[in-house]
């Protein structure tokens, strides 16, 4: 299992933590905003299926903090390339802040577990 999740000898691996914050171009409610978020969730699902996204979720919006990604990539440049494909980033609705993170490789098991407990998908 350690090899399957990319674990080192300590059961850890490198990630990039991405904090999503309110961006300079908030989109008003309506069909265009709904489509943007539909694309955001599709992007999340794609990255998870590719094994590039370990964890994602929203924050409460306090201080402009909107959500996070924990990307299973070793460097910030690759994380930037992956987040550039997300409509909330490319539209300016949100901006991304990147931090290197070293954490449990078991995070890579979250997506499969989530599929087993979710009654609906985005």
TrEMBL record:
The lineage of its organism: Bacteria, Pseudomonadati, Pseudomonadota, Betaproteobacteria, Burkholderiales. This is YciI family protein. Belongs to the YciI family. InterPro entries: Dimeric_a/b-barrel, YCII. Residues 27-93 form the YCII-related domain.
